[in-house]
What does this fold into?
Amino acid sequence: MRWLLFFLLALGCHGSVMARGFFQAMCEDRMAPSVATVKSQHNGYTIDNTVSLLQLPAKSHKAAPKGGFVLGLTVTRYGAQVNYRTSSMRNPLSHYECTSANIVISMAYEPTVIFVGREFRPGTCAYKEILAHEMRHLNTYLEQMPKVETAVRSALERRFPAKAVYGPQGQAQADLKREIDEIWGPYFDAQMKKADQAHDAIDTPQEYARLSRVCQGEVQSFIAPLASTSP
It folds into this structure.
């Protein structure tokens, strides 16, 4: 009787392993592979010449240069939306399932606004110099997005291979939701902040000094009266 019981238990375990292996193979043959897609979009820009030099600092997250003025400013915001859906095939005998994921990350800049202090009339030398400086920031934003897109796509492709995931029923979907909330959202923000460092290479003390001297003192002629009235 003991031998018979042992034989039946062994047969049951062997059958479970066989079923699991067969189910896994069937999953890989029939389930669609996991797919991760990253899309980016820039929504254009406008130029605003209605805000005073004294008011521009309030629109920036950075402090004005010490003892100086913000002559122009490029303002934008970025965001990412993560959409995903999963497809599953369940094995009612083993309570396991295979799951594939379709993940789409959409990245975008909100419409960018380039401010040039209203003291500088369009077409003047000073206006053109300030606008040219701000256009460097705009171009940097445009260059950043494809780099972030590539980095995020590569990381997703490494993390989600093009095959279904096998595991206990319900676990894969719960793990995916938690991972997106706790890992991929912060990862995207970190990539964007890393890219933002490129703007620090534009706004150097040397560049601020250059802008203050351009156009044969035209910039200084506007700043000097404001300096006496600013707190």
Notes: The helical segments are 2-30, 125-159, 171-200, 205-227. The chain has one domain: 31-227.
